[in-house]
Design goal:
The protein is α+β, with helices and mostly antiparallel strands. The protein has 27 helices and 22 strands. The strands form eight sheets. The chain has a five-stranded mixed beta sheet with strand order 2-1-3-15-16, covered by helices on one side. Strands 7-6-20-19-18 form a five-stranded antiparallel beta sheet, with helices on both faces. Strands 4-5 form a two-stranded antiparallel ribbon. It is elongated and about 120 Å long. The termini are far apart. Pathway: Cell wall biogenesis; peptidoglycan biosynthesis. It comes from Sphingobacterium faecale. It is found in: Cell membrane.
């Protein structure tokens, strides 16, 4: 074909042009996989930036971010002109004169290299192509990349073509902005905004000349010119950039000299925009969106999403403050309970041998020390007992101590933890989520990951099973010894004899409402037997408990492990007229373009009758209103203005390991759990460790503070009226009695309390508020200090 061209020079020119065209096509098409990936037209139109996603509360407060690269792009007009000047002067002085590839710069760079002054000739656009499309990564290379010498040639050529495509698609402003938003500045700072905040604690618009020169200088080598690790190198490189700005006319010679004498003046900022408890929310949202991310093939770590949660930042702040204050007191109480005694005990109260040692054997340091000491465990534990200076987490902040590894292990194992969640029962929106005491040291989330024995907070499901079976709140059972014979799963015959928390029985007939209010194990066991423990399990699952429940006679007393989230969901079914409402943590997701790409609404399903649901809310109020109700400690707080109604249930598991409180009002359902992660460490008795002494005060303080801010949507008032006719009898006033401090546990305290004193029955039903006032007086007369 080329032989037809008689002119030899023209023929060679045509051959070269034709070869370039063929080579270009082959590279673009990745012919036979020889050249590797090249960006397509669509890639150029919509370049991919790995942009951090942000997590917001419902009231638009930023509480966290997800990122592999901490990147937050900013527009051109949000970047200091000093940054632009420094970048052009140092990296690409002819930026505004070329179309992506600067051939004059290539010649100049080659000449400088030959003279012993090596410098790159890549334009800003070429560097952008490299950053955006990872042209030098292994997955962008073809088979020819293994041939020495060809690798860099093919890579450079692809970058030239990509740079040209970028220049034809975007303006110079767009290109330099994209470049500054994609480059790495070390210390997990990607993009100019992250870097300016990380190193100077200011927005990129406000960077001065020296700060701009320092950041631009880092681009030559983010490690060697890192101002934190290598401040001398960073200063020298900054001064080189200043000199280049002088040569390019952006600075005068005097300005260069003056600025070069200035110090770095770093103002480091490593704040993650989230505190300890918000970290639990951030992790919970991540788990919440896992399936959504997979189904939609969206990586929340790279997609630049704005994720709006249902959390109210103001409610969350109140909850966190209350938890911190109360848990500090409880921690002090637990420490005082045991004093110098070893707190890890078995069911018989005996010290568990080798407890700390067994936990130490799970530590990474144990394995390394075993290797160091050639499997001589005595030497390992001698090393672990050596005291040294360290910092440990306390409620007063990080405290410097002289601890051994074993001391530190004991310290952290003895820390009480908590989980708290509050939810709108009608739309499922979660308003508060406190997953633990400190996410940095305790990653496990105690709202939805941890499952603990529910104790008496589970009893309402047994009574709901009774209501669903046809009983009414006024049906009566006798508080008497109970003996239940049954066959277990192994086919073995068993006898179960539950006892009340105070070891006593009154032989008194009680309505279901009164019995649940006093949390009597004997009557709850009779109710469970009457309806069948399978029925209790079924009702609990219908209401929202998803954990596996063992169908045994003790199920109604809360012998199974459940999560705080499940319990809040179950109690919300009562408040929402029998409709099970799925909790919602994320309300909507907004894409990088500002368009809403997903919304989330709670699914609701009618699972129990509206009549029985309303009756259960009435029974839950009984723990406050009925004589001896286990929630009467709530009267210690300012919670009952304007005829306000609160219902709830305390709960305490065996040996005071778990303390619970579930509270319901007309606007909010909340659950609180308190206990040690290590279940062999717990309080000794009901006076210090039952739910009414640990979890209930957290709920009460939270609600008391919440009621001071009616603008948050939680206000005083009565429970909603029933939406259906209540046909069952529920108006059955209980006799007035005076009891000692109510106890509520599936386990017994160390010694029985005095039997309650029966007082004359009321002659008539008093108005609710007047009755509540009498209960408050009775409770206050018998109230004692809960703290050691």
């Amino acid at each position: 074909m080329f032989r037809r061209v008689k002119n030899r020079l023209l023929r060679y020119v045509l051959i070269v042009i034709y070869s370039i065209i063929l080579f270009t096509c082959a590279v673009q098409l990745n012919f036979l996989g020889l050249f590797g990936y090249s960006p397509t037209k669509n890639d150029i139109v919509m370049p991919t930036l790995n942009v951090a996603s942000e997590v917001y509360t419902a009231d638009s407060v930023l509480i966290g971010r997800y990122f592999e690269e901490d990147r937050d792009p900013v527009p051109f007009d949000s970047i200091s002109e000093h940054v632009l000047d420094a970048l052009i002067a140092t990296e690409d002085i002819r930026f505004y004169k070329h179309n992506g590839v600067d051939f004059m710069g290539l010649v100049s760079g080659a000449i400088s290299t030959l003279k012993g002054d090596p410098r790159g000739a890549s334009t800003i656009t070429q560097q952008l192509a490299k950053n955006l499309f990872k042209t030098r990564y292994t997955n962008a290379q073809g088979y020819l990349s293994k041939v020495p010498g060809l690798n860099i040639l093919i890579t450079k050529y692809k970058e030239w073509m990509t740079a040209y495509k970028l220049e034809t698609r975007y303006s110079k402003k767009d290109i330099i902005t994209m470049y500054l938003n994609t480059v790495s500045f070390s210390n997990n700072a990607y993009g100019i905004k992250s870097a300016s905040i990380r190193y100077f604690n200011k927005q990129p618009k406000n960077l001065n000349v020296n700060e701009s020169a320092l950041l631009v200088g880092m681009l030559k080598g983010t490690t060697i010119y890192n101002p934190i690790r290598n401040p001398k190198n960073a200063m020298q490189r900054r001064n080189v950039v200043l000199a280049q700005m002088g040569k390019s006319g952006y600075l005068t010679e005097a300005e260069v000299k003056g600025l070069s004498r200035d110090s770095l003046k770093l103002d480091l900022n490593y704040k993650d925009n989230i505190d300890g408890n918000d970290s639990y929310i951030r992790s919970a949202v991540e788990r919440w969106l896992e399936k959504w991310s997979q189904d939609n093939e969206i990586d929340i770590y790279k997609a630049g999403l704005k994720i709006y949660t249902t959390i109210d930042s103001r409610m969350q702040k109140i909850a966190e403050k209350v938890v911190a204050e109360r848990m500090e007191e409880l921690q002090r109480r637990l420490k005082n309970t045991w004093g110098s005694e070893e707190p890890w005990r078995d069911k018989e109260g005996k010290v568990i041998p080798e407890f700390l040692e067994n936990h130490a054997r799970k530590l990474p340091i144990y394995a390394s020390l075993m290797q160091k000491y050639h499997n001589n465990e005595d030497s390992v534990f001698r090393d672990l007992q050596v005291k040294k200076e360290m910092e440990v987490f306390t409620w007063q902040g990080m405290e410097k101590v002289k601890y051994s590894t074993m001391d530190s292990l004991k310290h952290y194992l003895m820390m009480l933890n908590t989980g708290m969640m509050a939810m709108n029962p009608y739309d499922g929106e979660i308003k508060v989520w406190v997953g633990g005491i400190n996410h940095e040291y305790y990653k496990f989330d105690h709202v939805n990951q941890a499952k603990r024995q529910a104790g008496s907070t589970f009893k309402p499901f047994a009574y709901m099973a009774a209501l669903e079976s046809g009983m009414s709140p006024c049906d009566k059972f006798t508080d008497k010894p109970v003996k239940i014979e049954f066959t277990n799963k192994k086919g073995e015959h068993e006898i179960w004899e539950p006892k009340n928390a105070d070891w006593s029985v009154s032989y008194r007939e009680m309505s279901l409402r009164w019995a649940m209010a006093r949390s009597l194990n004997t009557i709850t066991a009779q109710v469970t037997e009457a309806v069948g423990w399978d029925k209790v399990v079924d009702v609990a699952h219908l209401c929202g408990i998803e954990s596996k429940l063992e169908s045994v006679p003790s199920v109604g007393l809360g012998s199974n492990d459940v999560s705080v989230l499940e319990m809040v969901k179950g109690y919300s079914t009562f408040m929402n007229a029998g409709k099970k409402t799925d909790p919602i943590l994320v309300s909507k997701i907004v894409g990088m373009d500002g368009n809403v790409i997903a919304t989330f609404k709670s699914e609701q399903k009618q699972v129990i009758s509206p009549e029985n649901a309303w009756l259960m809310t009435y029974m839950l109020r009984g723990t406050v209103e009925e004589p001896g109700g286990t929630s009467q400690a709530l009267w210690e707080w300012d919670l009952f203005k304007n005829e306000n109604e609160i219902g709830g249930k305390t709960g305490t598991s065996s040996d005071y390991v778990d303390g619970w409180y579930m509270g319901v009002t007309k606007d909010l359902v909340a659950g609180v759990w308190v206990g040690c992660d290590e279940q062999s460490i717990h309080f000794k008795n009901s006076a210090t460790g039952e739910g009414s002494k640990t979890a209930l005060p957290i709920y009460a303080l939270f609600m008391e503070e919440l009621y001071k801010h009616p603008e948050l949507g939680v206000t005083f008032g009565r429970f909603p009226e029933s939406t259906v006719e209540i046909k069952k009898d529920y108006r059955c006033p209980s006799p007035r009695i005076r009891v000692e401090q109510p106890v509520d546990s599936v386990e017994t305290p160390d010694s029985p309390e005095d039997e309650a004193l029966l007082l004359p029955e009321l002659e008539e039903v008093k108005p609710v508020q007047r009755e509540l006032d009498m209960q408050r007086n009775n409770t206050q007369e018998n109230r004692s200090d809960n703290l050691p």
